[in-house]
């Protein structure tokens, strides 16, 4: 950022104290939530807050028995945290770029690892990518969000949106795929053979295939993350 006096640095980087939107980008990598009620966020995403805000880890049956079983089957699960109260809440995830969507009856599917926060008015459900089980580890599930309200996702670097048109299938690397329109149902194309396994990872021979009409959001980064055990 260059050289600054302390006063110059504070002036350049200080938070915006004005009353702004419910979800707002404080910087391109920090989400500010002007909280007056409650919000759901990714567990561990809170980096700071001002005001009277309480945090509660998602309870086992908070979102119903069906979602509990789905979360158990994914291994990693989408660990959520509920923030309740009034104040300014700041969220971030490993320095990734934050994008805010304002759903207005729309639906979007987000890779479980890339979901940062959403309003409680947004309905959500976990979708398991069963066809991928046993082929690749990590990222085997996505979260479908629909309805009305704000949703924040994260990407490594600048996201790119690919338009899916009828008769023109779009193929993506699963580890670089962040989100897609809720009406699309991705298929998986595999080309694993002895030849493709020599000198390269087998994951490079697996692609997600999107057909129909909609969009796919990708990032210029292959995010490989391991599933975590359900033990303490």
TrEMBL record:
SUPFAM superfamilies xref list: TRAP-like
Domain of life: Bacteria
Protein name per UniProt: AIM24 family protein
Pfam families, per database record: AIM24
